[in-house]
Amino acid sequence: MKTVLMTAFEPFGGESINPSWEAVRSFDGKEIGGARIVVRQLPVVFARCGEVLIQALEEIRPDRVLCVGQAGGRSDITVERVAINVNDARIPDNDRQQPIDEPIVAEGPAAYFSTLPIKAMVAALREVGVPASVSQTAGTFTCNNVMYQLLHWLQRSGSAARGGFVHIPYMPEQAAHHPGVPSMSTASVIQALETSLQVILSTENDIRVAGGATH
């Protein structure tokens, strides 16, 4: 049986919850698309998030990896296309560290592209009524750090696994404290992640449709 590693983050930035963890933790131990799901929580700490991720990768040796994070202010499920080799923190992490213009991996490539079928994922999410789009930036905080370290490890380890990152909006409970900011229910996020897993496990070659941005 195949194994999928899903990761999500602890709360950060003054929030008491993180919608990624609230949704992802419900998948632990489930079987979807003929695969067993294993879940891990990552710290919102630059110095440790990649270490915890890599420990899980080496322990589990998954066939697929789907990392999930909070993107407060975004209105839909955003499937990330690329991770870049820089930490540039607008706010401190949970250890009060705030790296600026520092590489994630010294002498590492400038960027890595997701190896998941990102456009097929977006199409499937829209088909089931969940707003979704391809994102051209995973930011420069710990989400981007984790995506970069995941793809760096997959390439350097020789693993045949495929992996990538998805951002999700605030939960309504959070948006209530940020007037005018979009949100998405945990039930809708769980539906979106389950649909994404089905696509990830059944799609070898991504579809070729427009998913770019003009700005």
From TrEMBL:
<feature type="active site">
    <location>
        <position position="167"/>
    </location>
</feature>
<dbReference type="GO" id="GO:0016920">
    <property type="term" value="F:pyroglutamyl-peptidase activity"/>
</dbReference>
<dbReference type="InterPro" id="IPR033693">
    <property type="entry name" value="PGPEP1_Glu_AS"/>
</dbReference>
<dbReference type="GO" id="GO:0005829">
    <property type="term" value="C:cytosol"/>
</dbReference>
<feature type="active site">
    <location>
        <position position="80"/>
    </location>
</feature>
<feature type="active site">
    <location>
        <position position="143"/>
    </location>
</feature>
<comment type="similarity">
    <text>Belongs to the peptidase C15 family.</text>
</comment>
<dbReference type="InterPro" id="IPR000816">
    <property type="entry name" value="Peptidase_C15"/>
</dbReference>
<dbReference type="InterPro" id="IPR029762">
    <property type="entry name" value="PGP-I_bact-type"/>
</dbReference>
<keyword id="KW-0645">Protease</keyword>
<keyword id="KW-0963">Cytoplasm</keyword>
<protein>
    <recommendedName>
        <fullName>Pyrrolidone-carboxylate peptidase</fullName>
        <ecNumber>3.4.19.3</ecNumber>
    </recommendedName>
</protein>
<keyword id="KW-0378">Hydrolase</keyword>
<dbReference type="GO" id="GO:0006508">
    <property type="term" value="P:proteolysis"/>
</dbReference>
<dbReference type="Pfam" id="PF01470">
    <property type="entry name" value="Peptidase_C15"/>
</dbReference>
<comment type="function">
    <text>Removes 5-oxoproline from various penultimate amino acid residues except L-proline.</text>
</comment>
<keyword id="KW-0788">Thiol protease</keyword>
<comment type="subunit">
    <text>Homotetramer.</text>
</comment>
<dbReference type="InterPro" id="IPR016125">
    <property type="entry name" value="Peptidase_C15-like"/>
</dbReference>
<dbReference type="InterPro" id="IPR036440">
    <property type="entry name" value="Peptidase_C15-like_sf"/>
</dbReference>
